[in-house]
Design goal:
binds adenosine monophosphate, four-stranded parallel β-sheet, globular, 508 residues, binds methylmalonyl-coenzyme A, alpha/beta
Length: 508
């Protein structure tokens, strides 16, 4: 048996001396280097006791070595479990207990804190710093430069990515080798990536967008990338002349439009601008076209499904839509309660089925079952319609979710933390239109009787528990929350009341 995903990458690799990535600190890394470095890391993993099917949890800064570690996990038959660098110790503790990783890899600067936590869940610990330093790479540098990849079939797990749950605990989406391979193949063809392409890669590599959509596509095309550790809009503009493609969340495009250097001339070498992870406003699409002459290609996906739809490469890239189902992906709009398929033009639940769709949530069979229909369609939680020309529109969310700068925040998680504070009677967390982040996390809070708790005190109190990007940008105090006759908080009324919070002149 072969190693399904890594063999697929290998089969499309260009000559070893071809460039895979140029980094922002001036390093040039070839395909040959990548195979060697991932082989050495795979040895280091095996020597650390990592066996096929073991989870390797990784919370490290973006670096070429962090990317090699992903490939090393594939080659060693391990399940890669990347974690957002913003997660707090409390959040990490949950992931470690739930996933029971064999190995936890963290930044050397955080090892003193994370080490005991990892050990408490039975894991061993290694370090990897932003400059490629640390115990893992030290060990790897002593290892042979070739590695016999472990046999892994299409259905074996390649990765587990956690996605927050609408009602409490985060769920680990189990992604197989074939889930990732099939999607990367389809995207390479659909978006016409070839060995001549150079992608500007400025996304984090701990979520689907930066890890799978971006790097898997580049590997599967034998192309190369400009590997940026941070999104710096001025620098991105300066890189456009050396690149052919950019993938980003809408906030990237909004911020790039503030750059005077963004002109038709600056963007003339680029053949494709792609946006996803959150809705791209039609006005951003239009402004981009006017400034650069390019129509941004918007696509739609999820952690659980990889990419489901894309606007066309040729043909009209219609603003405000996410295009058509990708080849091999079946998409339908269904009645959210019964699952009965609806006619084109009707709004309902978006449901998908295909080789891209995950096999379930880690150790949560009931949650998995609840999110699939009997005929195998996955219930996305996104509400949409298919228009007369076949374009899919996302018109809302059936799930209570805020997307801020491409990161997902489940209000329930923040509300639970705020409600637990002395001085708070109750809270409702909502997303409100935000000019930079798309949606701004906003907490509407009712104080407990006689309490004088302030917004700053609330933020300070939750800071130890929840990642910073999830913090409310604003806290508003009210006497009571609006409720319907069933006693349910009417978040739609709150969103309407505060809809101009971040756009009016009073916004801060
Ligand atoms: C940073 N901050 C944020 C966010 N990012 N607050 C709200 N939402 C955010 N997204 C806060 C920090 O906590 C900090 O707060 C301040 O902003 C500055 O932090 P910094 O790290 O400098 O931020 P930045 O570099 O300006 O980051 C903004 C960003 C980043 C570049 C838009 O958030 C980003 O890379 N987003 C991409 C996320 C992504 O990859 N999503 C894909 C998920 P303070 O100043 O108070 O300290 S995969 C997915 O969604 C599906 C599958 C799909 O379809 O792709
Ligand atoms: P995640 O939890 O990171 O997997 O985020 C997946 C969610 O992001 C989807 O269920 C959608 O709600 C949203 N999403 C991704 N791409 C788009 C898009 N192009 N337009 C609107 N929403 C999107």
């Amino acid at each position: 048996m072969s190693n399904h995903l890594f063999d697929a990458f290998r089969a499309r690799m260009p000559a070893p001396e071809r460039l895979l990535m140029a980094t922002d600190d001036g390093r040039s890394i070839t395909y040959g280097d990548t195979v060697v470095r991932s082989a050495q890391l795979a040895h280091a993993l095996s020597q650390s006791g990592v066996r096929a099917g073991d989870r390797v949890a990784v919370q490290v800064e973006k670096s070429p070595e962090a990317f090699f570690l992903y490939l090393a996990c594939l080659r060693a038959g391990a399940i890669f479990l990347p974690l957002n660098t913003a997660y707090t110790l409390t959040e990490l503790g949950y992931f470690f207990r739930d996933a029971e990783p064999r190995l936890v890899v963290c930044d050397p600067a955080r090892a003193a804190d994370i080490g005991p936590l990892a050990k408490a869940s039975g894991a061993i610990v290694a370090t990897l710093g932003r400059n490629g330093d640390g115990s893992l790479t030290e060990r790897a540098s002593q290892q042979p430069t070739d590695f016999r990849d472990l046999a892994r079939g299409p259905d074996d797990l390649a990765a587990i990515l956690y996605t927050s749950g609408t009602t409490g605990r985060s769920k680990g989406a189990m992604l197989s080798h074939e889930n990732l391979a099939s999607n990367a193949r389809v995207l390479v063809d659909h978006w016409r990536f070839t060995t001549a392409d150079v992608l500007i890669h400025a996304l984090p590599i701990f979520h689907t967008h930066g890890l799978f959509v971006a790097t898997n596509v580049i590997l599967m095309a034998g192309a190369s990338m400009l590997f940026e550790t941070k999104f710096d809009p001025a620098r991105i503009v300066s890189l456009l002349a050396r690149a052919t493609a950019l993938m980003g969340v809408p906030t990237f495009y909004v911020r790039l439009l503030h750059q005077d250097g963004l002109t038709r001339q600056a963007a003339k070498n680029i053949r494709l601008f792609i946006s996803g992870s959150a809705p791209l406003l039609a006005e951003t699409h239009k402004a981009w076209r006017e400034r650069t002459g390019h129509a941004i290609l918007e696509r739609y996906g999820m952690t659980e499904t990889n990419m489901n739809t894309s606007n066309p490469y040729d043909g009209e890239r219609r603003a405000g839509t996410v295009g058509f189902p990708l080849p091999g992906v079946c998409l339908r709009i269904a009645d959210p309660n019964s699952g009965r398929p609806l006619a084109d033009g009707e709004i309902g639940m978006i449901e998908v089925k295909g080789p891209n769709v995950f096999s379930g949530y880690w150790r949560m069979p009931e949650k998995t079952q609840a999110e699939f229909r009997d005929d195998g369609f996955f219930i996305t939680g996104d509400l949409g319609l298919i228009d007369a020309d076949g374009y899919v529109h996302i018109v809302g969310r059936g799930k209570d979710l805020v997307i801020s700068g491409g990161y997902n925040i489940y209000p329930k998680e923040i509300e639970s933390e705020i409600d637990a504070l002395p001085g708070v009677a109750e809270s409702a967390v909502i997303g409100i239109a935000h000019p930079d982040f798309g949606e701004g996390v906003t907490a509407i809070v009712v104080r407990a009787p006689a309490s004088t708790i302030t917004a700053a005190e609330i933020i300070e109190a939750i800071a130890g528990w929840v990642a910073k990007y999830k913090h409310p940008k604003r806290v508003i105090f009210v006497d009571e929350l609006p409720r319907n006759t069933m006693g349910k908080v009417q978040k739609n009324l709150l969103r309407e009341t505060y809809k101009d919070l971040y756009t009016s002149s009073k916004a801060s």
